[in-house]
Structure of Pyruvate kinase:
Amino acid sequence: MQLPDHKTKIVATIGPASDTLEVLTQLIEAGMNVARLNFSHGDPAYHGAVIARIREAAAVTNRRVAIMGDLPGPKMRIGDLAEEPIELQRDDPLILTTDEILGDKHRIGISFPNLLDAVQPGDRLYLNDGFILLKVVEVKGTDIHCNVRVGGELRSRKGLNLPGINLGITAFTENDHDWLRFAAEHRLDAVSQSFVATADDILAVRRAAEAMNYAPFIIAKIERADALDNLKAILTAADGIMVARGDLGVEIPIERIAVVQKQITELANHFGKPVITATQMLESMVIYRRPTRAEATDVANAILGGTDCVMLSAESAMGRYPVDAVAMLASIATHVEPERSKQPFVRAMDGFNGGERMRAVDLIAASVYHTINNSAPRAVIVPTQSGSTPRNVARFRPPVWILAFSPNPATCQSLQFSYGIHAIQVEADRPDWSRFARHWLGERGIDSGLVLLTQGPTAENPCGNYRMEILELGLDAGKICD
Ligand SMILES: Nc1ncnc2c1ncn2[C@@H]1O[C@H](COP(=O)(O)OP(=O)(O)OP(=O)(O)O)[C@@H](O)[C@H]1O
Ligand SMILES: CC(=O)C(=O)O
Ligand SMILES: [K+]
Ligand SMILES: [Mg+2]
């Protein structure tokens, strides 16, 4: 059994640069664990065809790949431009209109009628991830007259952000509902909801999915300021979380991104839920074969800080070097992970020391971690139904792989998001895991050294105790000891 040299998981957005069977196969071989489809771009027919090709590539390479559909949320975008790009200069007048037009450098369409009531003279509007700044001069009829404060190049369908202006809309929109149905029909493993503000936004997705008889792994994308006040509730409601730095870096001052990223990551580690660090990780690789020093360092710092996944957006969706970008993430992770300090362990335990009693699963996870540090086992085997026990162990970032044995295929797919966990689907839950594990390892030629095994109560064995076993392999060849 050959596992990768790195344990950080890799999410890659699939787009025109990467949607062929050939490139998808190469992305998987380079280390892509999760393929992200951004439903803000492309129609259902396009994404349907891409999903089929991702599954084909996974079958060809015999690797597990999860697919995540990114629900756009109430992101405002400009309409199409007659000619692009256009160049906006400082002090230019510019009209944003809710009229349906093909835009030019004087007047640009916006498909969001509420905007007329929400803005007033003096407000700041940002285009294209904050690169272009407009100031509102006046609102007249269906037009918002603006003045360009910071100019730049603009293309069709780029995003519009209004930091600090409440548009009174919830994250999960009708359009998202349609895309969720698409995700359900294609049995996607995960969906990520954009612009989450509260736990209710996640519950809305979950309830809508339930009504479709669909139970995806749900990722909350943190990209607006309000969400930062509700992080614990959002993490409780969601299955995982994403630091969506593209919009977040416009919605809050860009100077705060580093600290907010660290706080979200620590909290997710504490909750034992996976966290994805996203956007511009290797941005210059859209054009160049090598990343900048700053980008390579950003990826490394995200890993050192405890992220489960690193994500590519434009690099893999529309860049020149999608496969090199995935390989670069894998290589940085391989070099950085062994250098991680023990801090994440201490952090993940924070809060349990202040009087709060540790849960049995935490005690087991902590025991596994201590045992690993003193014995260098070959792997940790964690049978699981929901995936929560292996995630609880993984949050201490042990230096060996956690092999999660699960009879639940959805659980196996969802573990693609978790650092250091390799999921193995088994036929059924069983009362004799240690015997099964020995046999399973033996079949793969693993017949010496130590392997740790954890067990807890299960549906089949509700009275089972929480325990950690130490399997000493090959001590007594030929004799069946268990
Ligand atoms: N399916 C697709 N078809 C065409 N272009 C795509 C597709 N997916 C992504 N892209 C391109 O890659 C760019 C980067 O992807 P990304 O997922 O970051 O989208 P975004 O619109 O910038 O932001 P957000 O993730 O906040 O929606 C997009 O702006 C778009 O130009
Ligand atoms: C990924 C995403 O939506 C963002 O960074 O804004
Ligand atoms: K999106
Ligand atoms: Mg975003």
Observations:
- Residues 279 and 380 are 32 Å apart (CA to CA).
- Residues 44-61 form the longest helix (18 residues).
- Residues 194, 221, 223, 244-247, 278-279, 313 surround pyruvic acid (ligand 2) (CB under 6 Å).
